[in-house]
Amino acid sequence: xxxxxxxxxxxxxxxxxxxxxxxxxxxxxxxxxxxxxxxxxxxxxxxxxxxxxxxxxxxxxxxxxxxxxxxxxxxxxxxxxxxxxxxxxxxxxxxxxxxxxxxxxxxxxxxxxxxxxxxxxxxxxxxxxxxxxxxxxxxxxxxxxxxxxxxxxxxxxxxxxxxxxxxxxxxxxxxxxxxxxxxxxxxxxxxxxxxxxxxxxxxxxxxxxxxxxxxxxxxxxxxxxxxxxxxxxxxxxxxxxxxxxxxxxxxxxxxxxxxxxxxxxxxxxxxxxxxxxxxxxxxxxxxxxxxxxxxxxxxxxxxxxxxxxxxxxxxxxxxxxxxxx
Length: 325
Description:
By secondary structure, the protein is of the alpha/beta class. The protein has 13 helices and ten strands. β5, α3 and β6 form a beta-alpha-beta unit.
């Protein structure tokens, strides 16, 4: 089996950093926030061993990839341009797109918009959702005293100041709070930590700072992620949230389209997203939008960082789905 290598690819006018391993059909692995390509460290060797070419990019604004200054440069369609250009830059015609968190949204939209370049799609955590009747800025709640966390993220420099004050503490708190280690999401003492936020406080104020890193995130791997965000800051990742309304407006052009390629959906039993009202119903009805959905699987005990928390279960499901294509 080949070893992993890291290099840069010029794609869509940007210099993007990628980690790749293996030979065979191309599988692109798209991370979420706050993560980098290092989130796929368990999947790269497993896919390579199974006969696939696994490539995990640092998405624009993350890790060692370029970080455009313009907030408007972080819409989903901008990132899809990167994905298509990456496939070209890797000398391939098509790829299976795998994504978690924001990467899952990107994966779904890539399959929706460019089925000619996407053989299949695998999404972790975030289901395929139809276009909301109103823009997110109107959909998500806010009041004089509190606002939904996406409104907080939408204010330029506000979350950056909070998150970059102590990068290590930020990552410890966020990773633990959204992980399965925090406990079931249906108990009063373990609600979704990413919901309504008092306007007088920040996101991190209500999150516990664990005494120890989660068992699935050894110190060496945590240091890789900490070093990445110490260097890049959090602005690039937060800019994805600042384009939620723009994404919604652009999706009007694809209203009524369905995902017509094979698909797989995986979610952790303790994913914070499952605590959001209506999320379970969306998942149960997803086959209306994804008629070739092969399976929708819940991974016991795992939280939002599914590929890191439960790598064996994710790898088995992923390899099984890919081999069946």
